Amino acid sequence: MGSLKKSGGVNGAILSRIATNDQHGENSEYFHGWKSYDKDPFHLSRNPHGVIQMGLAENQLCLDLIKEWIKENPKASVCTPEGVHQFSDIANFQDYHGLKEFRQAIAHFMGKARGGRVTFDPERIVMSGGATGANETIMFCLADPGDVFLVPSPYYAAFDRDLRWRTGVEIVPVHCSSSNNFKLTVEAVEWAYKKAVESNKNVKGLLFTNPSNPLGTILDKDTLKNLVRFVTKKNIHLVVDEIYAATVFAGENFVSVAEVVKDSEVNADLIHIVYSLSKDMGLPGFRVGIVYSYNDSVVSCARKMSSFGLVSSQTQFMLASMLSDDSFVDNFLMESSKRLGIRHGVFTLGLKKAGINCLISTAGLFVWMDLRHLLRVRNSFESEIELWHIIIDKVKLNVSPGSSFQCTEPGWFRVCFANMDDDTLHVALLRIQDFVSKNSNKTAEKASDNDQVIQNNNAKKQKWKQSNLRLSFRRLYEDGLSSPGIMSPHSPLLRT
Amino acid sequence: MGSLKKSGGVNGAILSRIATNDQHGENSEYFHGWKSYDKDPFHLSRNPHGVIQMGLAENQLCLDLIKEWIKENPKASVCTPEGVHQFSDIANFQDYHGLKEFRQAIAHFMGKARGGRVTFDPERIVMSGGATGANETIMFCLADPGDVFLVPSPYYAAFDRDLRWRTGVEIVPVHCSSSNNFKLTVEAVEWAYKKAVESNKNVKGLLFTNPSNPLGTILDKDTLKNLVRFVTKKNIHLVVDEIYAATVFAGENFVSVAEVVKDSEVNADLIHIVYSLSKDMGLPGFRVGIVYSYNDSVVSCARKMSSFGLVSSQTQFMLASMLSDDSFVDNFLMESSKRLGIRHGVFTLGLKKAGINCLISTAGLFVWMDLRHLLRVRNSFESEIELWHIIIDKVKLNVSPGSSFQCTEPGWFRVCFANMDDDTLHVALLRIQDFVSKNSNKTAEKASDNDQVIQNNNAKKQKWKQSNLRLSFRRLYEDGLSSPGIMSPHSPLLRT
């Protein structure tokens, strides 16, 4: 067998460490939830008792506007009789700079998606295979294997794959907590930086999503300024993933890092933005990811890397036309924000009726739902997973547990609300309300002897409900959740 | 500055080694040639004296058939009034398995593109961002940084980027030579393997293109079988890049590695195929790359990696429909082969008229042109580059020098012939013929005193022409090629 080490199994050492190290993160509960949904997907008429997918941050609220535009603009596609005369040129186009019109349109759209308060240079627009590819690309450009990026937690579960898996970069979380509504502070970053340096880590940068996934919150301008100054002082990078820029539906304006990059105390060479059309436009299938850097060398390097994940020229061509249509874009952004706001309002109000609160948020396609009071054992990640399995298997809603976002406090869940129609959302809310209500009633009857103290105390009615809900959940997991697969001791979350 | 090393320049150590190591290969002459073309691109009417691009292996000969199909199948696009009702589902589709219909159609097409002699399992079809992404993906799956893949030379210039740049994998060339028409032999592979092992390299596999880029030749079944047995014996991988499978226009059938994988002496877990629609269909802009592996773990791992370079769902949807249309595919493949054969015939005949031979080939979108007799100094790579600059700057044809393919014999050039219309090809041939003829005549006049011996010898007429051509080339580079930029001593090719 020459110089090769013999492997234990069929593949063993014959595959790479990356192929065998499991750091793609797909064994996390986050992906497990998706699989449950896949097995029994809800459909209003065909499968009304199926699992409703609330783990997918999709934006389906304004696709009707895009469809209208497509019907009115047949020349925008090379696959229509009206546009096919351009087919050959477009089908052959593989320049990694991208179609000039595409880059211009994207830059223009990025400005509009940030309220028109900043402009972007088309020459700095680098294509990538979705934000997934864009985040990996920027890591490959900035950091060597073993280098560290600080990432505020809770953070997007797939960052473990996107930022680390093939690059070898390490993530050190900057823990945020409910004590200040999970707000990212310079102090928390400084502390994490200091700890990492003390552990002999080579910290290469700070990366966060703004608006935040999974929180749906946005960072205020002062904090952003201070963070930018901090990275300048430490000579480390700042990558801001702004793929939810246009999902802000209430409150203050979203402040892009592009707004503070010209601050005199900033080294712009350290500032990079990741963008995408998957969330703001609702087009994840089209795989439009963007790396936007103020550092010329990074632009040049990332562009070379874009060869590994170029946007289909068919897609570039259509989007170039669509995104340069000012009246369409203006209306789309306004309407999208409005519809997201309404959807968010309906959903959070519905949750409130069931006694469930969420972190106050003004952006995103999800809420950060607080179920701490429903955990069987407070402050226990095991209980979080138990509760989560009940929600999936009994309430039939696929939501995502906070631990899959590396949240340090058990009991939080990300729930997506923009990937379904009004009817489905209605069913989801009914299920939650019915479940809470029915189980409270049932348990109340049974508990009449045991829980007299609580029942007799009207002032503690809300607490009583919660307590009973915990009981009902406990009964449920005792009834139905004893299969070893579901409570696998090898669940990575139990390590959290 | 914390624990960070201070950098010399603005970027220095703040960027990654990958970003600063230059191993993307874009400084090679191969890419330099493209840049020359970009500055002054030929157009029949608008810029008839511009550079003709013959360095790009594009297939534009059958795009009319695709355009016809598109016009007749408006439902195949989600961006037509007829197909837009499916827009939302497709725009949101981001499952890394790909659309089921797409995988089935691709598998079906791959079989047809190999003469229907093999079938492919849709469950093993893994998407990737073009063959560029597919080749990188398979390296990430199979090898660790520092591991070696053996690659027969001459090989596709961008392999240095695709296989090595971000993966850290090393390429050890298996040198093929004109002595046996550059045929890959098991002996050559064994020798390279042995040498690599002796140098303490961890050889993880063998990778080659079949049909060969840049040679346009195909590998016979016996050799393929023996290579497959060799990798089995050594427990190393075999990756066959078959992106030119359907470009075979003459001679024997192309034998895919899929045809020999069931050989009893083969470990199928070691066999992997890279495919793409860029060459066979002429759709490089659509970025359809495929990793097809017989190893379940590799399929699973590559699929996870495909998240970094998924095919746009807009593109998947259209191609699913097009490639499952049997009568279209059958006609396309037959017509494409026929047109490539005619084009190849016209081009090589035209070159012959100018006294230029090519390696005999039966596939590909290019010929491997033998200009060894025109080198100022025989067997000199410096002369090859000189000659190449003359061809670009004076004859105004962007061809690719053999050294950029790691060819060990100076004087060979890859010339693409399928990325232009008949008229442009005609102009290209006229330029070559005129150039050879005019310069031969001029030099013949001047040389009447000096070269009496040769002129008087009718039997050596051909040799005389070549000799004078060398003279004319010499004059040309003395006239026009003295700019330091062009003859940069730092050209990576001088290291070859």
What brief labels describe this structure?
Aspartate Aminotransferase, domain 1, alpha/beta, homodimer, disordered C terminus, 16 helices, 12% strand, 2 domains, disordered N terminus, Aspartate Aminotransferase, domain 2, 496 residues, seven-stranded mixed sheet, four-stranded antiparallel sheet, 13 strands
Helix residue percentage of chain A: 40-55%
Q: What is the percentage of strand-forming residues of chain A?
A: 5-15%
Query: Which ranges of chain A are low-confidence, i.e. pLDDT below 50, for 5 or more consecutive residues?
Result: 1-10, 447-496
* General form of chain A: globular
What distance separates the N and C termini of chain A? Answer: 41 Å
Number of strands of chain A: 13
Number of helices of chain A: 16
- Tell me the name of the CATH homologous superfamily of the largest domain in chain A: Type I PLP-dependent aspartate aminotransferase-like (Major domain)
Describe the structure concisely.
Chain A has 496 residues and is α/β, with parallel strands linked by helices.
Could you characterize the architecture of this molecule?
The structure is a homodimer of 496-residue chains. The first copy, chain A, is globular and about 65 Å long. Chain A has 16 helices and 13 strands. Chain A has 2 domains: 21-62 and 331-436, Alpha-Beta Complex (Aspartate Aminotransferase, domain 1), CATH 3.90.1150; 75-325, Type I PLP-dependent aspartate aminotransferase-like (Major domain) (Aspartate Aminotransferase, domain 2, 3-Layer(aba) Sandwich). With 496 residues, the first copy, chain A, is an alpha/beta fold. In chain A, helix 9 (221-234) links the parallel strand 5 and strand 6 (237-241). A 7-stranded mixed sheet of chain A has the order 2-8-7-6-5-3-4, with helices on both faces.
